[in-house]
Every structure is written in structure tokens, then in C-alpha cells.
């Protein structure tokens, strides 16, 4: 059987507990803060570098005058997630602000797609540049449930771009896919 030392004897020992070494602790905190700042700076430099690599992308078209006069087919309020090179869901395009996530108001008309993004660059996709729309689950690091993302493929310059949107009411996505694909077929038929 072991005997337990009474607490008052332990407290009476001559050696007390180690005192915190504040200089070592502050050094560790400063070192960790410097590491976090370095990682943030490297991420920012990578973002800028990617933008320079994509600098050959032409300026985004603005909404033409009288766009609303052509007739509005659909509107959508939700989130803009990103734009990527078509078919490469992780190759984010950051040039001209296309990599900035934001709220979005989409308007589809006979003349094209108007993308209004508060706090980010607005742009317009002419009807002739629309290629297709589909439901997907992932784009540029954003993964959602199956069919939770509306992805619109469009041509800009000599590049095909996938842009991802999520409506505040996901049930609207199917109508958008049908309308854009129908508009694309009628535009192609008129061009021939």
C-alpha cells in the first residue's frame, strides 16, 4: 500500500514552480505572426502573378445601352463564385476582377447576359458569346451539393470561360440552364 503525502507538505517544499519565461513566449508569438504575414504576402504575390499571366484577356464588355429594352427572359439574385478556364474547374481567372467572389444580379435577355456585381466589376456577355449552361457541383475551390452551382460557359476573346453562380433559390437553376441553351441554339441558327 502506498502512502500519500499530505498537501501541506507539498506546499511547504523549498522549490516552487517554474516562472514563465516571457521573453521566450513573446519570441514564439512574434515568430508565428511573422510566419503568418509571410504566408499572406506570398498568397497575395501569387494572386498578382496569376493576374499578370492572364493579362492577354481582353477588357470585359459593358452592358449596352437599351439592354433592358430587348426584353428580359430571366433574372436571378445570388452569389458569383468565380470564373475559370472552361473545362478546368481549378484554373481560376483573376484578370479584370473575375476571381472576386461577390453578390450578383443576373439578367438574361435576347441580347445576352448582364452580370451586375456590387463591389466588383460588372460585365456583359453578348448572346453570340454564350456557349452553354449546366448544373455542376464544383468550381475554383467551391464545392456544393450535386447540381448546386449554375455554370455558364461563354467565349471572351479566344478563350472559353466557365462562370459559376448560385441563386438564392437553387430551384431556379434548371430554368436558367434551359433558357441559356435555348438562346444559344437560336443564336447559332440565326448566324448560319
From TrEMBL:
Q: Where are the transmembrane segments?
A: 26-43
Alphabetically list the UniProt keywords.
Membrane, Transmembrane, Transmembrane helix
Task: Mention any Pfam family matching this sequence.
Answer: bPH_11
Report the residue ranges that make up the PH domain in this protein.
57-180
This chain belongs to the protein called PH domain-containing protein
Origin organism is Streptomyces fulvorobeus
Amino acid at each position: 500500500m502506498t502512502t500519500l503525502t499530505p498537501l501541506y507538505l507539498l506546499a511547504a517544499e523549498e522549490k516552487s514552480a517554474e516562472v514563465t519565461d516571457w521573453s521566450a513566449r513573446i519570441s514564439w508569438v512574434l515568430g508565428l505572426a511573422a510566419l503568418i504575414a509571410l504566408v499572406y504576402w506570398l498568397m497575395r504575390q501569387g494572386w498578382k502573378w496569376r493576374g499578370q499571366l492572364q493579362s492577354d484577356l481582353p477588357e470585359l464588355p459593358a452592358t449596352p445601352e437599351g439592354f433592358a429594352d430587348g426584353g428580359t427572359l430571366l433574372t436571378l439574385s445570388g452569389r458569383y463564385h468565380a470564373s475559370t478556364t472552361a473545362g478546368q474547374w481549378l484554373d481560376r481567372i483573376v484578370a479584370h476582377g473575375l476571381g472576386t467572389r461577390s453578390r450578383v444580379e443576373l439578367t438574361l435577355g435576347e441580347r445576352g447576359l448582364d452580370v451586375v456585381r456590387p463591389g466588383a466589376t460588372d460585365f456583359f456577355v453578348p448572346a453570340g458569346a454564350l456557349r452553354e449552361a449546366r448544373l455542376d457541383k464544383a468550381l475554383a475551390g467551391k464545392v456544393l451539393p450535386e447540381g448546386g452551382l449554375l455554370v455558364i460557359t461563354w467565349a471572351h476573346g479566344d478563350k472559353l470561360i466557365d462562370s459559376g453562380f448560385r441563386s438564392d433559390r437553387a430551384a431556379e437553376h434548371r430554368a436558367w440552364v434551359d433558357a441559356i441553351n435555348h438562346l444559344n441554339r437560336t443564336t447559332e441558327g440565326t448566324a448560319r
